[in-house]
Specification:
heterodimer; A: alpha+beta; 7 strands; globular; B: mainly alpha; 69% helix; disordered N terminus
């Protein structure tokens, strides 16, 4: 919950000048030169941030899916998808919820396919067994 | 750290297996039971209203996710909790939580300043 009107919270997420002011762990800063913030479906969300002590750098490279001002933003990044909802609580207060999910990864997809494969293998074994019995 | 999420997401992908394995109440109950020590499949199945075969299936999922290791003693195959995958899942969650806690704290400060500026 934030003590700010929803329009302010929305702007903090979608304004080039504001996002770097708060995004990330303390001690990390977005390099403004790297920031791309195209707030529309299919637009890019891109930036590189650096840890001021270690110099370690991290990149986020995402694509906006839904942009429903001032209620909802979603974007994909890697295999994951994040959804941000902005709820007006009245009285100049806003609830912000960020949820992320990992899409079914390749590994899991392969596992599911392998499961199906082994079911067919068993069926094949079974048929072979019946065949042998008939021949016997 | 948010990008560490991205890195994890494209890594070949133990973490997804771990979370998928944890997303089932029976499997979490099995893990809780194993936290007390090594147990055979038969003993493990006893408190659950499901067959030994079903427990065996759950164990396979847990094993594939690196959460459980199993002994080789033929039929008995005692299972034991393997801490590392669980530790990695917990570390990921801690990272994720820390990222958003810091970001939300900073956002709160930023919004206060932005409003003061707008009002002043």
């Amino acid at each position: 919950m934030f003590d700010a009107p929803r329009a302010f919270v929305w702007a903090a997420w979608t304004d080039l000048a504001q996002l770097p002011a708060w995004w990330g762990r303390r001690g990390w800063h977005i390099d403004p030169a790297t920031l791309v913030l195209e707030v529309r479906p299919g637009g890019r969300l891109h930036h590189v941030s650096a840890n001021e002590e270690t110099g370690e750098r991290m990149t986020i490279d995402g694509v906006f899916e839904e942009v429903v001002e001032p209620e909802r933003l979603s974007f994909t990044h890697g295999d994951a998808r994040s959804v941000v909802t902005f709820r007006d609580l009245g009285d100049r207060r806003t609830e912000l919820v960020v949820s992320s999910d990992q899409r079914m990864s390749d590994a899991l997809g392969r596992q599911a396919t392998a499961g199906l494969g082994s079911a067919f293998d068993r069926l094949a074994d079974h048929l072979q067994y019946i065949n042998q019995k008939e021949h016997a | 750290m948010f990008n560490r999420i991205v890195e994890y997401a494209v890594m070949p992908d133990t973490l997804s297996l771990t979370f998928a394995a944890l997303a089932d109440p029976t499997r979490r109950a099995i893990l809780a039971r194993l936290a007390d020590g090594e147990v055979t499949v038969n003993d493990l199945a006893e408190p659950f209203p499901i067959s030994v075969q079903a427990v065996s299936k759950h164990l396979k999922v847990l094993e594939r996710a690196g959460l459980v290791t199993r002994g080789r003693m033929a039929q008995l195959r005692p299972s034991r909790l393997h801490g590392q995958a669980l530790g990695e899942a917990a570390a990921w969650l801690a990272d994720y939580r820390a990222f958003w806690k810091d970001s939300f704290d900073r956002l709160d400060e930023h919004l206060r300043a932005a409003q003061q500026k707008a009002n002043g």
